[in-house]
TrEMBL record:
InterPro entries, per database record: Epimerase_deHydtase (IPR001509), NAD(P)-bd_dom_sf (IPR036291), NAD(P)_dehydrat-like (IPR050425)
Gene3D superfamilies in UniProt: NAD(P)-binding Rossmann-like Domain (3.40.50.720)
Name used for this protein in its record: Oxidoreductase
The organism of origin for this protein: Wickerhamomyces ciferrii (strain ATCC 14091 / BCRC 22168 / CBS 111 / JCM 3599 / NBRC 0793 / NRRL Y-1031 F-60-10)
Stretches assigned to the NAD-dependent epimerase/dehydratase domain: 6-260
Pfam families: Epimerase
Family membership noted in the UniProt record: Belongs to the NAD(P)-dependent epimerase/dehydratase family. Dihydroflavonol-4-reductase subfamily.
GO molecular function: oxidoreductase activity, acting on the CH-OH group of donors, NAD or NADP as acceptor
Length: 349
């Protein structure tokens, strides 16, 4: 029996590889876009081990921001019914032109995929765009207990506010999501739009080859870099501070809109917990006694102390209600699984 065909953009990414796993587990036919044939071959080889009958092919899209980037994919595949647009640059502090590095691929990439769907994607029913919690958090309200961030909240940032790589990322994600929503409002397409607004996404890599480099993708690196911390460091690791979801849950939330019409038009903000560097270190030190004397202990008793002025206050009850999800993978499980995977990989190689 033919199964629903889903296009997954940026299929080589951290979240996307887990999303690909969820899609194949659920028997979808998947077309991934990647930037090189090598990546396509590598991902195919790895996934065929778990899913020998997987209906998985790839299209090469070298630059999502180039005009017409997705036209050929939709011309070649009129059978695509679902689109998960995850591709977007994720690295803060790059010493390059901020507009070229972040803004153009994020916004033009989103416009390109939506225009290609409108023109050629005659079978498309559901479109899911990966936005970010960055598009939800109002930077002027951080630390304000009276301001509760929800599925309705928007970051007021504009491109004119941008001075740093982090701000460029935040603005690009916000403006790309606004562009997608405006497109759907104005064109009144025959497909539904859902955006996913994850916080920092931590957790293990889906495929081992993602562990080849000493540094990992931007968000997984938050845990990895603690494994290189100074064992004599006893300061309170109040930074990094952020909200968290495990990558396997972030992936699941991407797939649900293909199957649940309640999620049409919605913004989903999956958040499990708040972390700081100390909380992560405490989990690592408690779970992996073999790291004693090799990584920092920091100031363990301070883990629950967050600077009030840096907290964000949020309510994700609508996301839970709409998705029917009862619980998320915890920070503790997520960190354990990530560190176990990194240590195993290091001892093998
Ligand atoms: P990732 O591992 O860096 O994946 C990003 C993907 O996008 C990669 O496949 C990358 O291809 C592709 N890509 C980037 N720029 C491109 C371009 N100009 N042309 C073609 N492909 C391009 O990042 P991730 O953490 O999985 O993030 C995936 C999505 O989730 C992004 O939209 C990100 O903004 C969003 N998000 C992530 C987090 C987080 O904490 N990780 C939180 C909120 C939202 P290459 O691998 O070839 O470079």
């Amino acid at each position: 029996m033919a199964t629903k065909t889903v296009l997954l953009t940026g299929a080589s990414g951290f979240i996307a590889l887990h999303t690909l796993d969820q899609l194949l587990k659920r028997n979808y036919t998947v077309i991934g876009t990647v930037r090189s044939q090598d990546k396509a071959d590598n991902i195919t080889t790895q996934f065929k081990k778990d899913y020998p009958n997987a209906q998985l092919t790839f299209a090469i899209v070298e630059d999502i921001g180039a005009p017409g980037a997705f036209n050929k994919v939709f011309q070649d595949h009129p059978e695509i019914e679902g689109v998960l647009h995850t591709a977007s640059p994720v690295s803060f502090g790059l010493n390059e032109d901020l507009k070229d590095t972040y803004f153009t691929p994020a916004t033009e990439g989103t416009r390109n995929v939506l225009e290609a769907i409108q023109t050629y994607g005659k079978s498309v029913k559901n479109v899911v765009v990966t936005s970010s919690l960055a598009a939800v958090i109002n930077g002027n309200k951080i630390g304000d207990k009276t301001f509760i961030h929800t599925e309705e909240t928007w970051n007021p940032i504009t491109w004119e506010d941008v001075n740093t790589g982090l701000e460029a990322y935040v603005a690009s994600k916000t403006l790309a999501e606004k562009l997608a929503r405006k497109f759907a409002d104005e064109k009144k397409p025959s497909w539904t739009l859902t955006t996913i607004n994850p916080p920092f996404v931590l957790g293990p890599q889906k495929l081992e080859f993602s562990l080849t480099n000493k540094t990992l993708n931007t968000s997984a690196e938050i845990v990895n870099e603690l494994l290189y911390s100074d064992p004599n460091d006893t300061h309170f690791f109040d930074a990094p501070l952020g909200t968290f979801i495990d990558v396997r849950d972030a992936a699941l939330v991407h797939v649900l809109p293909l199957e649940n019409e309640n999620l049409s038009g919605k913004r989903l903000i999956p958040i499990q917990d708040v972390y700081n560097g100390q909380k992560l270190l405490n989990i690592i030190n408690k779970t992996f006694p073999e790291l004693e004397g090799k990584i920092a202990k920091g100031s363990p008793e301070n883990a629950d102390r967050h600077a009030e002025e840096s907290n964000i206050y949020y309510d994700t009850s609508k996301t839970l209600e709409w998705t029917g999800i009862k619980s998320w993978i915890t920070l503790e499980e997520s960190v354990k699984d990530s560190v176990r995977q990194i240590l195993d990989y290091r001892s093998k190689h």
